[in-house]
Amino acid sequence: METPVVEFEDIDGLRQTLSSYKPGSTRNLVGHGFSRVCLQLFGLGGDGKSSLINSCLCVVHNLPFSNEAGAGTSSDSFTTARNEYKLTDTVYITDNRGLNRQTKDERLELSAQLRNLRSPSNVDWNFELERTVNQLEERYNYSTDFIVPVWVYSFERPLSKDAANEFSLLLRDAFEITGIFPVVVLTKSKGKYTAGVLKEMENLGCQHMQVLNNYTTANSARSLETDSEVLRFLHMCLQEADRGIQKKKNLTTQWEFLKKAADQIKAEMKRQKELQREELQAAIKQKELSRLMLKK
Fold first, then answer.
1. What gap in Å lies between CA 245 and CA 266, rounded to an integer?
2. Minimal CA–CA distance to 187: which of 146, 216, 207, 165?
3. Are 36 and 94 in contact (CB under 8 A)?
4. Residues of the chain falling short of pLDDT 50
5. Backbone angles phi, psi at 212, to 5 degrees
C-alpha cells in the first residue's frame, strides 16, 4: 500500500491547502484548460460511497457530521441517482448508484460517466447496450472537468477471483479513459475479509489505496484519526489529478506538434500537386502551340 507523503499533525493547515487548491497547482501546471477536479465514486451497493461523501463534507468544511448524501443504515444500496457535492470551489465529489452485476452494460455506463457524458440524474444500470449508446448526452458545459475515478470497496465483502477479474476490467477501463489508476478506498476495516481483500487488491496492481473508516450516523463523533484518513484520501486524489493533468497537457503538446507537422506536410503536398497541375497545363499549352505552328 502506498505510504502517505504528507504529515497530518496540522489538520487545519491541510484543510486550508485543500480550500485553496486549483487544478494543476501541486505541480505548478498552468494553461491546461481544467477548472475543476471531480471525484467520481464507484463500487458495489452498500460499500460506503455515500458515507465517504458525508465524511469528506464534514472534514473539509470542519462541521459536525450530517447525512447529506443520504447514506443507508444497512448493507443495501441506498443511492439511486448521481449527485454532485461541492467540497471546495474547484473540487467536487459525485455519488453513484452501486454497480450490481458488473455486466458489459454497467461497464459501458461507467465508461460514459468517466467521460462526463452523463448528467447528474437517475441511473439505470440495466440499459441494453444499444439503448445506452443512444442515450449518451454530450456534456460540453463540463468539458473542463478532470475526472478522478474512486473505487470504494468494503472489507466486509470477500473479493473472489471472479469478482477480481471483473474489477480488473473496470480498473483498465478507468485508466484508459482518464489516464490515471483509480484511487481505491477500503472501508469498514473491522470486516472479516480485511487480509484477503488487501492481498487481492495488491495482486490487481492497485497503486493508490486508502483504508478509511467513515463517519456514520451511528458513529458521528469526530476524531483526529478519521479526519487524517479523509484528508489523506483527498490529498491522494488531488495528487493523482495533477499527475493526470500533466500527462494530458504533455499529450496535448505532442498532438499539437504532430498536427502542425501534419498540416505542414499536407500544405506541401497540396503545393506539389498545384505545381504538377501547372506544369501539366503548361505542357498541354506548349503542345497545342506546337500543333498550331505545324499547321502554318
1. 30
2. 216
3. no
4. 1-8, 74-75, 79, 128-133, 135-142
5. -145, 125
